[in-house]
UniProtKB/TrEMBL annotation, chain A:
The chain crosses the membrane at residues 20-45, 57-81, 101-125, 145-169, 189-212, 224-252, 272-297, 309-331, 343-367, 379-402, 414-438, 450-473, 493-517, 587-606, 612-632. Its main location: membrane. The keyword Electron transport applies. Keywords: Cell membrane, Copper, Electron transport, Heme, Iron, Membrane, Metal-binding, Respiratory chain, Transmembrane, Transmembrane helix, Transport. This is Cytochrome o ubiquinol oxidase subunit I. It comes from Methylobacterium nonmethylotrophicum. PROSITE patterns: COX1 (PS50855), COX1_CUB (PS00077). Belongs to the heme-copper respiratory oxidase family. GO terms for cellular component: plasma membrane. It is a multi-pass membrane protein. It is found in: Cell membrane.
Automatic annotation (TrEMBL), chain B:
It comes from the Bacteria. It is found in: Cell membrane. Belongs to the cytochrome c oxidase bacterial subunit 4 family. GO terms for molecular function: cytochrome bo3 ubiquinol oxidase activity; proton transmembrane transporter activity. This is Cytochrome bo(3) ubiquinol oxidase subunit 4. It comes from Methylobacterium nonmethylotrophicum. InterPro entries: Cyt_c_oxidase_su4_prok (IPR005171), Cyt_o_ubiqinol_oxidase_su4 (IPR014210), Cytochrome_c_oxidase_bac_sub4 (IPR050968). The keyword Electron transport applies. The chain crosses the membrane at residues 29-50, 62-80, 92-113. Cytochrome bo(3) ubiquinol terminal oxidase is the component of the aerobic respiratory chain of E.coli that predominates when cells are grown at high aeration. Has proton pump activity across the membrane in addition to electron transfer, pumping 2 protons/electron. It is a multi-pass membrane protein. One of its GO terms (cellular component) is plasma membrane. Heterooctamer of two A chains, two B chains, two C chains and two D chains.
Length: 669, 156
């Protein structure tokens, strides 16, 4: 009846996960109870859970990313503190638990922290920057988000029901085959990633279609803001790369469930093929995350330098070059597996070449700042820190791209320090830069600068403090994922890295405090005009938060930096644009399809993990039925009457006119 | 959504499967029928070639490959309406990107796996096998009279 699921699946003998999960469970239930008692459930259901508005979905993606970044960070705290206590000692985590923690850390940070955060920012910003009212497929967007949430849920369920993979965040066979991993850990990994991977792929299709087909009139490709370009490149990579991951994990699933031999190293299987295919997805994935990050920095640096982006076209070309080259370097993840000198040489060279367009971008950002009036706000601080630290990570990357050097450093903590160096300074810094930069657009008030800067400095110092010792101890020969060690000269570096984690904890706390303080002070921090940073692209041309239809009339774009041109004209003529003729707007109806589909997908995933076949069949049938019901819906859109559109837009125009006149009075005085 | 009606470019960029607003029903049907005929012809030709004795045997796989590629072309042109017109740039670009990625991934994987299989998986008889690469003899002493299984003289 319940497949492999019995009471023994609950790890009663391991206090750490159980206590942690109980704590999280209590907090979660508390929040749900609070929401229910306050009577907010109908509101949540109507306005958020069933919403197909790209802004709401983007916000939910970012919230998921934030929560999962903290979840993954708690794994990092466990690993660092454990290793600090594991010199000539067993530490406090038993090996089988320690293995699950480093596997979960990588899986959560990449798939459920960084990915939702970046996709969330793209979802929220891209349609606004393109001057359109929603993405191409609004309901599909909601399905994508909820499937991603399903994956995150399954990974976290593994904490209390069963176990997680002990194989590392890429489940290398033959270790991940049933022979060596008979438990449900790898299955949790497989189904969580497969289900959320479908969501990611659909989100990629959605955003590419939006960018290619739905720009505002006059917004030609070379007038798009840089963030839209990097989003286009990143989503093209999603479309090209995620099917590889899906197929590879499907083959591993067949190996595990139906006795196939794709990667078994026996009966014709070959485990090296898994590595080859996994990294053929894995390296583009690095750029799927990094490219939107580059886009965020482009927007932030240009806005806070008060200048157009330097060498816009070279930036576009660099983006597209990275997009293509990212598919030509994957072998550098397994130089040491035995491809031989010729193959290693070719991929070593392509890996070094990809640093060239990235270098072009670094110089473009620096020249954007040069001669500008730079305002060192929180998003700008994150961006400048990125420029400095990312160059270090890039340099160690070029070093590791040399195959002979890689033979020495492969699988060492030097490698771990390298990829954290690039991923944290690009993706995490961009995440927080984008979060602070676009927060007022999403919620109508800016975030508190003092706490933001405190969070920035603690995070930056802590991050450098953690990973510099790891570079050193890697050069001293320490390999990654050691549960305990007995080399005396490694010990001080490991302790130093652990102290750095404490500094990072302060950064996380400041980030949370910033949010709480900002919500409490929201009336002082209110963004009245919709343009709090003196922005240059179209998202600042509408109110904060934007109305559900984003723009009362489609903006007409006549050059690069669409909004800057409009604003300059308004400043010169001391009046706003002519009031447009308002027309009724049709917007897509909200739909519970995404949430219901994800509910059934959760059933399928959980049932497949525990071999509860009838429940899996039920879940599949339910998901299909949901699709059929959605496909046969009668009403697709609702209409917002012209006078409502006019009323909403006039309110924003009034506050913008007020701000304009105020600025003129100040100038005259 | 409403903006498609007012969008200047609504007709500029037609995706596969979109209706062509200017095209007559008859012309559309004719294009599908020509496509169907060509596709059937190519399929039949493939079956015929596979069994025929008219052709030189080693040429048969090449012929099958040619028919297969032609078949893809017929599908793209007649069923997916891929043209070289200015309204089709996106589709051509998407196809080119897809073909390039498949080529990189497939070609790269075959190349990589061939080398790794040779270096790491094949059983070694009588001594250490040298890596498969230029300028290095493939096997310490190739046995006389036995054709080599891999590569043959380091032309990889």
């Amino acid at each position: 009846m319940l497949g492999k699921l019995t009471w023994s699946a609950i790890p009663f003998d391991q206090p750490i996960p159980l206590v942690a999960a109980a704590l999280v469970g209590v907090v979660l239930l508390g929040v749900i109870a609070w929401v229910a008692v306050a009577g907010w459930l109908p509101y949540l259901w109507r306005e958020w859970i069933t919403s197909v508005d790209h802004k709401r979905i983007g916000v939910m993606y970012v919230i998921l990313g934030l929560v999962m970044l903290i979840r993954g960070f708690s794994d990092a705290i466990l690993m660092r503190s454990h290793q600090a206590l594991a010199y000539n000692a067993p530490g406090y985590l038993p090996p089988e638990h320690y293995d699950q923690i480093f596997s979960a850390h990588g899986t959560i940070m990449i798939f459920f922290g960084a990915m939702p955060f970046m996709i969330g920012l793209m979802n929220f910003v891209v349609p606004l920057q393109l001057g359109v009212r929603d993405v191409a497929f609004p309901t599909l967007n909601s399905v994508s988000f909820w499937l991603t949430a399903t994956g995150a849920l399954l990974v976290n369920v593994s904490l209390v029901v069963g176990e997680f993979a002990r194989t590392g965040w890429w489940p290398s066979p033959p270790l991940s085959e049933v022979t060596y991993s008979p438990g449900v850990g790898v299955d949790y990994y497989l189904w969580a990633i497969q289900i959320s991977g479908i969501g990611t792929l659909m989100s990629g299709i959605n955003l590419v279609t939006t960018i290619l087909k739905m720009r505002a009139p006059g917004m030609s490709y070379l007038r798009m803001p840089m963030f839209c370009w990097t989003a286009l490149a990143s989503n093209m990579l999603i479309i090209a790369a995620f099917p590889i991951l899906t197929a590879t994990l499907a083959m591993l699933t067949l190996d595990r469930y139906l006795g196939f031999h794709f990667f078994t190293d026996e009966a014709g299987g070959n485990s090296m093929l898994f590595m080859n295919l996994f990294w053929a997805w894995g390296h583009p994935e690095v750029y799927i995350l990094a490219l939107p990050a580059y886009g965020v920095f482009s927007e932030v640096i240009s806005t806070f330098s008060g200048k157009p982006l330097f060498a816009y076209r070279s930036m576009v070309w660099a983006t597209l070059a990275i997009c293509l080259l990212s598919f030509m370097v994957w072998l550098h993840h397994f130089f040491t597996m035995g491809p031989g000198g010729d193959v290693n040489g070719v991929f070593g060279i392509t890996s070094m070449i990809i640093a060239v367009p990235t270098g072009v971008k670094i110089f473009d950002w620096m020249f954007t700042m040069y001669g500008g009036r730079v305002r060192f706000t929180t998003p700008m601080l994150w961006s400048v820190a990125f420029l400095v630290t990312f160059v270090v990570g890039g340099a160690t990357g070029v070093l590791l791209a040399i195959p002979p050097a890689d033979f020495v450093l492969h699988n060492s903590l030097f490698l771990v320090a390298h990829f954290h160096n690039v991923m944290v300074s690009a993706v995490v810094f961009a995440a927080f830069a984008g979060y602070t930069y676009w927060f007022p657009k999403a919620f109508g008030f800016t975030l508190d600068e003092w706490w933001g800067k405190a969070a920035f400095w603690f995070s930056l110092v802590g991050y450098v403090w953690v990973f510099t010792p790891l570079y050193v101890v890697g050069l001293l020969g320490m390999t990654r994922r050691l549960q305990h060690f007995s080399v005396a000269e490694w010990y001080p570096w490991i302790v130093a890295a652990s102290l750095g984690v404490i500094v990072m904890v302060f950064g996380v706390v400041c980030q949370v405090v910033q949010l709480v303080v900002s919500i409490r002070r929201r009336e002082q921090l209110r963004d009245v005009t919709g343009d709090p940073w003196d922005g240059r692209s179209l998202e600042w041309a509408t109110a904060s938060p934007p109305p559900s239809f984003n723009f009362a009339v489609m903006p007409r774009v006549e050059g690069e930096e669409a909004y800057w041109a409009i604003k300059q004209r308004a400043r010169e003529q001391a009046r706003l644009r002519e009031e447009p003729d308002y027309e009724p707007v049709e917007m897509p109806l909200n739909s519970p399809t995404g949430f219901v589909c994800a509910f059934f997908a959760t059933l399928v995933g959980f049932a497949m993990i525990w071999h509860i076949w009838w429940l899996a069949a039920l879940g599949l049938a339910g998901a299909f039925a949901t699709f059929v019901v959605f496909a046969w819906r009668d009403r697709v859109e609702y209409e917002i009457p012209a006078d409502a559109v006019a009323r909403i837009n006039r309110r924003n125009r009034a506050s913008r006119l007020e701000a304009l006149q105020q600025a003129r009075r100040k100038e005259a005085a | 959504m409403s903006h498609t009606d007012t969008d200047d470019r609504a007709h500029a960029d037609v995706a596969p499967g979109d209706e062509y607003p200017h095209e007559e029903f008859g012309a559309g049907l004719r294009s599908y029928l020509i496509g169907l005929a060509l596709a059937t012809l190519l399929t039949a030709a493939s079956f015929w070639v596979a069994q025929t004795k008219v052709m030189w045997a080693p040429a048969i796989p090449v012929a099958l490959l040619t028919f297969a590629i032609a078949q893809m072309g017929v599908h793209l042109v007649f069923f997916l309406h891929l043209t070289s017109g200015p309204d089709n740039t996106n589709n051509i670009m998407a196809l080119a990107f897809g073909v390039l990625i498949v080529f990189l991934l497939f070609g790269g994987s075959v190349w990589i796996m061939h080398h790794m299989n040779y270096n790491m998986m094949a059983p070694v008889e009588g001594g250490v096998r040298m890596p498969l690469q230029k300028g290095v003899p493939l096997q310490p002493e190739p046995q006389k009279g036995v054709p080599m299984q891999h590569g043959g003289g380091g032309h990889h």
